[in-house]
Amino acid sequence: MEILQELLRKVLPLYGFIILGFFAARKWGLQSKWISKVMLYALIPLIIIENLLKADLAETAVIGAIVFILASLMNLPAMLTTRFLAKDLNPNMLKSSFSYYNIGWFGIPVVMALFGDEQMPLIISAYVGNALYGDTVCYYLMSRTKDIPVKESVLNVFKIPAIYACVLAIVLNVLEVEVPESMEVVGDVVSWVVSASGMLLIGITLEKIDFKKIPYATFAKILSVRYIAGAIILVALVFLEKGLIGRLDENQSKLMLLLASFPIAANLVVFATNLDTEKENSALLVGLSSIASLVLVPAVCLVLF
Fold first, then answer.
1. Which residues contact 185 (CB under 8 A, 6 or more apart)?
2. What is the pTM of this model?
3. d(CA 255, CA 152)
4. What is the DSSP code string of 163-205?
5. Residue 165: partners with Cβ closer than 8 Å, 6 or more residues away
6. pLDDT, tens digit, for every residue of 145-177?
């Protein structure tokens, strides 16, 4: 019950920004482009730097690698889903939605509810692996949804500052540069603003959708495949880690398994908005998965812990 209360207290208020974005777009014509620009070029790099500076690089390498491999392998069920369940959806957009997990504002409240600060390094390391994949491969895939040539799509990845933020943060971590305590408060505020802004973008984009024409059964099947496939792949990866590396303890292994119940990252809508492609479908998938995870995350928490 404590887990559920903590999630409702810290996560549920963010869903109000979907409603706010929806009505702000309808009544005042609020546009999403400038919000995505601020997030992509300023706020997200700040979060990456702040999290990587606090991470243990050895632990980050193991956990980040597991999450990166998970994201990569999730392309396989995405391709099968495109072939058999969602022939009308862009395959590259679907790959991104299967692979990119919302570890940030879902993961941190869950960890705080279960362990306090004890397991924060783990979720930060998972966030780093997720961000590295999302801000490179997912951004490339979203570029490809517009039939942009491969070379130009690759160059698009290097136009966003996230990859440079990762390199800078790793260098600063190696040099043992620490985040001042006063800046940690700023980092918490920035994280919350990014989460709220991502939900706001979803609402703005959803305003343009004709909900009567949405194939809800198809989207339900797509998300079911994503959640089930993610769980199977994560179980296999955690099992392999225990057998081959053995760095994770029992609670850390359980916490890694919990990642499969997280929704699609709201940053996918940021990418779609910035590239002006697949905005409606991205927003629908992110929005529906965010609703589903409100039920799945507490349920899986109660089973595992």
1. none
2. 0.86
3. 38
4. HHHHHHHHHHHHTTPPPPHHHHHHHHHHHHHHHHHHHHHHHHH
5. 44, 45, 46, 48, 49
6. 987 788 888 888 888 888 888 889 889 988 888
